[in-house]
Structure formats: structure tokens, C-alpha cells
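The following block was generated as part of the benchmark described in Methods. Ligand: pyridoxal-5'-phosphate.
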Amino acid sequence: MKTAVSHAAWSPPADHLAHVYAQWPLDVVDASGVHLHTREGRRILDLYGGHAVAALGYSHPRLLAALEGQAHALIFQSNAVPLAVRARAATKLTKFAGLGLNTAFFISTGAEANENAMKLAFKITGRRKIVAVEGSFHGRTAAAGAVTWGAMQKWYGFPNAPFDVEFIPKGEFAAIPRVVGTDTAAVIVEPVQGVAGAVDLGRDFLAALRARCDEVCAQLIFDEVQCGMGRTGHPFAANMYGVTPDMITTAKALGAGFPCAALLMADHVASHLKVDDLGTTFGGGPMACALIEAVVDIIESEGLLENVRKLSQRMRDTCVVGPVTGVQGAGFLTGLRTRRPAKDVQRELLERDILTGTSADPHVVRILAPFVLDASHIDALRDSLASLAA
Ligand SMILES: Cc1ncc(COP(=O)(O)O)c(C=O)c1O
């Protein structure tokens, strides 16, 4: 029976925005290179990149040229119209990955990429259970939220999970055969967990998941929405570990600021697809595809993977100072482990004009730096950390 829903007295905020985010005390007006500029004239070194998105920093000339060129040529057409730029983006991206995941499906967000990956796993296996790893973050939608650790208790909001879900404690090898069985459609895992605090799950654990998925004919999905597209200093974490999943989802750095996402599939996965199985209006639009093509091109031609590897090593070698007791993660998905609450260290760094992030771990400051950083920026971080109370 329908009963009345009561509403508290409420007036909308002056800016008419839904206030669902805690926000930093920043009034950003524009940005260039790796710096944000505020209305009052501060120049802030951005080591967070809008949750790992601004991989090429700001105003990269080749990125802007791709954006402008495509906007003039053709701003939008859907997947009902074949486009050369879409085919070029898919070819470029699958070659960049180089993992034999030869087919791309483009969507607009990371959560949507994960939804589609899981949907395909259900279709292929005819099973109804997904296994995820404790600490995971896979997105806010019904399926992605259902496999996100802690979402049910915190913000899930839908009446039920849409399928069966079980979690494996990270690094607990013995749990793998117990939890992943012949009822499992897929295991979804972030090889380096982002929101959890830059937690590197390691080659052995990922290889064990791969082996078990092979044994029970389950699909292995790497969620590389945050750790992919060069962030580890390798095209994908899968390349870094030498463990190849059946599907990779990626987003964030993929468009370096233009909203887009991709699902990369092995041939044995893509062979199950027929017309109408998947769909989207905006995914694979020409603007997104022009940017994906440009991002891969820039990462490759400017040696940015090497830059990430070199500078993340410099961070590891030099930034264990002040309140930092250790460094975790991989590449520019770095966690600085702090003796004091990470939120305090983050606030103090921002007072010194360096923007960093936090994570689900209250003692990890998260660095999601742009790939175009140079050594002087790492040194600035080190000097600022060194000036803070231990
Ligand atoms: C690993 C991972 N997967 C999925 C998502 C969801 O991506 P989106 O916010 O684009 O839906 C995120 C976002 O932070 C993420 O970090």
C-alpha cells in the first residue's frame, strides 16, 4: 500500500546545485600546464587532476587542436553512423593496450563501462554471481555500486543488488577457490585500487585470480578506470603485471578531460556480440574519439610512460619526509602513507599551493598527478612535505 512521504521544510541553495560533495576552499578560474589559477591569484600545483582525469595537465596544445578540429569537422553523430575517427580511436587504443584485447566498445563513464563488462560476463556464462575484492570502487550505478566495497552500507540506495555478489579479502589467496566457483560469471578487480588508497594488489594475486577464472570458466575483468591509460607508467596495469584479463574497462585519463570510457574485449568475448546487445547515445561520439586518439598519440610520442616511471620513482626515493612514512601504489597512482591524519596533511599542502587527494584510508594522501609533470614539481612536493610537522 502506498503511504505518504514526508518532506522537511527546505529551500533550494542559491547556486541551484545539488550539494552532494564536500568541496575544497578553492575558487578556480582557469589552468595551464600543471597549475590551477584561482580568482585571488594563487597558482596551485595540481597533483590530483580532478580524480585522475587531467592526465595531460591543462591546455595541452595538441589536445586543444584535436578538440577544436573535431568540433569544426563534426561535433556529433551516434553509433548508427560509421565514423573514421571512431575506427581510428578503437584501433589506436587496442594497439596501445597490446594485450590481444582487440575490440573496443565506447561509452561515457567508468561505471557504464563496468556495467557493460559484467552484463557481457552474465551473457557469456549464463551465471548470476560476480566476485569483487574488498576495498574496491567500481562506480555509483546499480551494478557497479553492487560490486563496490561498503556501498550497501553507505550510499547504494537501490532496494537490492541486481545479482549475487561476493567479496574476497585482498591478498587472501586461500579465499580465491572458496569464493570463485562454477557459479561465478566474473571476477572484477582494480589491479591497483584507487579509492582504497593506491593499493597495489600485486602480480601474484592477480595471476591467481586469472588461473582460477580459467579453471572455472569465469571472466576476469580488470577495472582500469583509474589505474589504466598510462597511469602506472605502462599502458595498463595488465601490461605491468603480465596478467591478461578477458576485459578491461577504462575511463578518466582516456579523454584527459573529455568524458569518455571504453570496454576492451578479448576475441572470445567480442565474438558473442551481435547488433543490439549493447548501446549508448553518447559513447563513441566523434569528439570523444578524436580525444582518445590524441591522448594515446601524445602519451606515445612525448614519452609520457617513461616520464611517469621515472618521476614516480623520484617520488618514492625522496618524498618519505615530514609526516610521510612510506609510499605505496604504482606510477602516478601513488599513496603517501602519513603518520598524522591524511586530511590534515592534505589541507596543509593546499595551504602551500599543492593540491592532493585523500582516500578511504585515513592515513593515505593520494597523488594522481598529470603525466606531464617534471622533476621540479616532485621536488616542490618533497620540500613542502619536509616543511610539515612529522
Ligand atoms: C576504479 C574505478 N572504477 C570506476 C569508477 C567510476 O567511474 P565514473 O565516475 O566515470 O563512473 C571510478 C571512479 O572513481 C574508479 O576509480
